[in-house]
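User: I'm preparing a small set of examples for a lab meeting where we compare how different chains pack in three dimensions. I only have the primary sequence for this one, and I'd like the structure in token form so I can line it up with the others. Please keep the answer compact; I'll paste it straight into my notes.
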Amino acid sequence: MKKILTTLIIVAIIIGAMAMQTVSAASIKFTATPSATKVDAGKTITIDLKISDINAGELGINTLSCVFKYDENVFENVKITSKNNWSITYNDEKGNEQYGTLLAMLLSAGVKTDQEIGTITLKVKENAKGKTGNINFTKIASNDGKNDIPVADKTIAIKVNGTASSGDGNGSNNQIGGNTEKDPGNSGNNQGGSQNTNNSNGSNNNSTKNETVLNIIGSNNNENKNNNKQQENISKGKLPQTGYYETAIIVAIVVAILAIIISYIKYQKYKETK
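Assistant: Understood. Below is the structure token output for the 274-residue chain.
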């Protein structure tokens, strides 16, 4: 019986260690690679989105979320396309509390190998010569089925070739996320990049509504119930999970084994007292 007890204890320790490793070792790498870091005004650049070095248990991952914002004094006409059966949605509604949220979902089993998930295309504005525009990915996270997997923020700096004219103002005034609109023809009000300026004749409104290309796997219906559920979770601060029960099963097994061990010990003490 002592051998059985020893074996049970060893099994419980091994399973407990595996469960702890599942929680603590989860990690992924997210990369955003631009086609160029220097570009001419009026041209477009692409940013390839990729996940790699996935260590998220047997289920892998099938979600990735972040906040994607860019310098709207430099870039416009943003398009997002999906790759490899991923579906990417982007909230470009200014004023919405979830503005800038980018959600990538793989509407199938989780992935455990390196994979490109999508591409972002941005056009450089004609009046952006000599400026440097930042493209930011913040609050990046995935999920291993139980816990969120945080990833370090990413910032890409794109330099626009040429020399800024006096009418373009200060080329270093980067306004991320488009909360500030600047009149490129009014150089007297473009210092520091923190003030809102309006063209008095209203003819130079350069705001361009972002375009988003959505690839919904298995359906082109944007009212897809699964997608809506995932978006609802994001709006509540919950990242969709790859799986729900893997860790719960492990914990249940450990608890059952410990219960057997405790019962056995009590039984032995009871026999000794008789």
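A couple of notes for your slides: The first strand starts at residue 27 and ends at 34. The longest helix spans residues 246-273.

User: Perfect, thanks.
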